[in-house]
Amino acid sequence: MVEVLNDGGLRSDGRRQYELRDITIEFSSQGYADASVTFQYGLTQVLVSVLGPHEARIRSQTAHDRAIINVEVNVAAFSSGERRRRTRGDKRLLELASTIKSTFEPVVQTHLYPRSQIDIFVHVIQQDGGLLPACINGATLALAAAGIPLSDFVCAVTGGVHSTSSLLDLNTLEENDVPHVTVAVMPRTERVALVTMETRLHVESFEEIFKLAIDAGKVLHMEMKAALQRRIRTLVVALSSGSRPATQAAVFDVDEL
Predict the structure, then answer these.
(1) Are 104 and 69 in contact (CB under 8 A)?
(2) Of 24, 23, 29, 25, nearest to 249 (Cα)?
(3) I want to staple 160 with a disulfide (CB 3.0 to 4.6 A). Which of 46, 178, 181, 230 is the partner?
């Protein structure tokens, strides 16, 4: 049996209690998408593409004073060990899409695009815990890279408690074994965008994990901001050399976020 946390204070994958997994961020071009980002959190990998704003597909759902956000999630059959094919109508995927949508509706400045629609497409390539945080972090970068104004970055991480020890950024083994909570924060405005918990957690443990997640969000913010700045510099160089960039760049000063 694999131990979640051994006597030496190391977790099953060799990390310390509060250590985050390695993060890889890659911007790419995917079909008609305005921006696409592959966000990898350890072994968890998602591809997030953003399209829009554009005319709403279903006019009856159009809002006259703002843009509507549409989120679709699909999972590759080989992404996890269970080899279960999940269709678009799968309850778990619909819940995940709904959570992502409700997280970004207050963050995206939808009032700038009345009677339009912004699509966020999430493709889960590989799963090893922290799926919701990976989707949220990837969507933040994809929206920013597509030039859609945001009030702040949204940085998410999962935390849990094993016995009396708090853990950050859980993998699948840990998520299945310990009570945990996912927290999404907006570092610049110091607001909380999301708190979701599918297991019971003692109130004292929750307070400790919540504070740790806030600090972890600031670390994630620096990584995500640096990746977006590198992307924008690449596009500026491409434009100055006369070549056509693959995707749009965010039309704002990243230093302000």
Answers:
(1) yes
(2) 29
(3) 178
The CA distance from 242 to 245, in Å, is 9
Alpha carbon dihedral 138, 143, 144, 148, in 10-degree steps, equals -170
Q: Which residues of 128-145 are buried (b: 16+ CB within 10 A; e: fewer)?
A: bbbbbbbbbbbbbbbbbb
36 in Cβ contact with 248 (< 8 Å): no
Confidence of residue 37 (pLDDT cuts 50, 70, 90): very high
> pLDDT tens, 134-193?
999 999 999 999 999 999 999 999 999 888 888 999 999 888 888 899 999 999 888 999
pTM of the model: 0.89
Q: Cα–Cα distances in Å, from 16 out to 44, 82, 148, 217, 236?
A: 19, 28, 37, 17, 39
* Cα-only R_g, the chain: 19
Which neighbouring-strand residues pair with 117?
A: 54, 68
For residues 188-208, give the mean pLDDT: 87
CB of 253 closer than 8 Å to CB of 166: no
Strands, E, within the chain: which ranges?
Answer: 23-28, 35-41, 44-55, 67-75, 116-126, 155-162, 165-168, 180-186, 191-197
